[in-house]
Amino acid sequence: ATPVAMTASTGQLTRRGVITTRGHALETLARIDTLVFDKTGTLTEGELRLEQVTPLGALPAARCHALAAALEQGSEHPLARAIVAEAPETVPVEQLQATPGRGVAGEIDGVAYRVGNLAFVQELSGAGSVPQPVPGQSPVYLGASDGLLAVLTLSDQLRPDAAQTVAALMAQGIAVRLFSGDEPATVQRVAEQLGIAHARGGLLPADKLAGLRELQAQGRTVAMVGDGVNDAPVLSRAHVSIAMASGVELARNSADMILQSNRLSHLPAAVDQARSTLRIIH
Ligand code: ADP
Ligand code: MG
């Protein structure tokens, strides 16, 4: 393709709501054979709703909710935003420390607390029995140094065009994968709903990166689509990366393209356009 054709094509993509931030993006997009999706906030709306707070210790549900919200107040994570939005009261917290892909730690009235995934909270609270996660819902745990306090259950919805997008990408000959930090059972269920055969859950940011490197070592040309702080390393290392417009700033700055309207269906359209601009026949 001539430089003029490339520029025209980039302009057309922009009008379709796909902003290109780096020069190589269109050419690389034309050549991808594998695309990896993040789940929460990418394939799903990320507009989570807090369904239930189930106490696991001595504190009542409302107090557990307030403690969790206090810890989450500074977090940009979609789970955190949903917990804070519906908090019953404000509680002062100190020593806040977020760990991407795991959760947040902090101190309230001199007591250490953690909120996040089970493994992260159990490092503080010790093992304890927890209810089986409800399929399709994401559990967030709250614990103190003397034990687990609660499980908060949040529900998320698939984006309306997620299934059609996955099908369209596959029809373009692109292998679709799912890498998520969420509970493996929840991730598996989403993968089944979308017809994605290869899905991995419980991944830390470094695990997502290792998963990407494995695919690249197989000689694949890989695109990554994500929205979170936990996706930033893998977005920077993918051959070409796309961030959701609703994603956090770090994710948007790490990506080569931005899906302006959060419309996943613009992805296969962009691949089509990139391929015809570059005249790559598949
Ligand atoms: P995904 O890869 O699906 O976008 P993340 O990697 O962002 O998910 O999060 C993985 C898991 O880590 C979440 O499902 C949650 O259990 C936990 N987690 C991460 N950050 C937070 C937070 N701020 N509050 C509660 N839980 C969190
Ligand atoms: Mg995400």
UniProtKB/TrEMBL annotation:
It is found in: Cell membrane. Belongs to the cation transport ATPase (P-type) (TC 3.A.3) family. Type IB subfamily. This is Cu2+-exporting ATPase.
